[in-house]
Amino acid sequence: MTGLFEAAHRARNAGPSELAAALESSRQDTLETFAFYEHSLDALTVPLRETLNPPLWELGHVGWFQEYWIARNPLRFAGVGADPAVPRLQGLRSGCDALYDSGRVAHDTRWSLPLPDAAGTRDDLSRQLAETLAWIRRADASDEALYFFRLALFHEDMHHEAALYMAQDLGIAVDDSRWQAAPMADECTVLSMEPGPWSLGHPGRGFVFDNECGAHSVDLPASHIDSRVARWAEYLPFVDSGGYEQPRWWTQAGAAWLAAERPCAPRYLRRLGSTWEEWRHGRWRTLDPMLPACHLTTHEAEAWCRWAGRRLPTEAEWERAALERPAEFEWGAVWEWTADAFRPYPGFEAHPYRDYSAPWFGSRRALRGASFMTQPRMRHPRYRNFFMAHRNDVPAGFRSCAA
After folding, report:
1. Is 387 helix (H, G, I), strand (E, B) or coil?
2. Could you give the CA distance from residue 279 to residue 74 in angstroms, rounded to a whole number?
């Protein structure tokens, strides 16, 4: 077990008392980050965009999700075998499903919902967490009994990361050193991986996301994969060489994105003369070229690879390198685009939270790793993230393989 994902291993296997402490810690981070929104946004108003949600809706949804799957769920201790359609008990707030159920409440309608104010929402979260902690004291230490508590924890952690990159989009300064990118001084080396089989997927016990299940053998060819992700020092020469104006580097989908968006540089970057600047915490500042290249689309990652004579790794190549060469394979700086579409493993069976994976198979690109905005307990080498290829609000970058 390497230090990078020790926290994730502990969280996925945490017993009731450790899990209760993690739930309280996660809620503290949720509320602290929400406070930055309150300080920065007039009436907590944000523009209606695909990549945003109203902050009050996000906050209320986190508490609703926890209550829906634990306090209101008669099968709260039944684990992955629980019937997701079992009638729910009454919520603390009347009509909460019509406000916060992301599977039923269309994205664009969330701006016009009669949501409670910030004080009322915080009160809801406090009472919901108290209910959760009361129920966890009745749970045994089995994976089945703790499944929904672990799910609620990781769900809140995911929304906390989303709150951080939405803050970046909105120019909100999040004054917390834990969620800042760090320079990468190490030179990149190439790790040579021998051909052979790899068991792709999660084989172990503890909490497992449904899209990780179905461990299966994959025959991998020999490959040569970078030991770390690309930094701006490696990426910006592509931009400086006119890469965004040369269609030959872009896939068909990438060329369509380029034509529609007409970017001349990565998101949050601009060039003033010979100096590159980044937009961070609501102001422009000189870019440190040692920082990981971040907020890139799949298309930009693939275009750089073509320009450099490289390619993106597959999920299996990434996972094998992370687990077989942990001392040399550096990850966790940014989410990393892979060459694979997000698809189910053989024998996939959806877990009770049906909306988590199944609706997105085939329409999203798979990412691996973690970012500087990710809670440490979420950083697991078998975790599969997934976003649409054009998303550049997410703190994503890439590493490359020999073509």
Report:
1. strand
2. 47
Closest to 55 (Cα-Cα) out of 47, 64, 46: 46
Domain of 381, CATH number, reads 3.90.1580.10
Mean residue pLDDT of the chain comes to 97
d(CA 110, CA 149): 26
| Residues 147 and 224 placed together within one structural domain of the fold | no
Alpha helices in 52-185 (DSSP H): 55-69, 96-100, 118-136, 143-170
Residue 86 falls in which region: left (phi positive, over 0), alpha (psi -120 to 50) or beta:
beta
pLDDT of amino acid 1 = 45
Token digits for 303?
Answer: 């275009």
pLDDT band at residue 141, thresholds of 50, 70 and 90?
A: very high
Indicate if 324 and 253 belong to the same structural domain. Answer: yes
Nearest to 287 by CA among 307, 304, 267, 303: 267
pTM of the model: 0.97
Domain limits at 118? 3-179
- Residue 395's closest CA among 335, 342, 338? 335
306: its two tokens? 């073509």
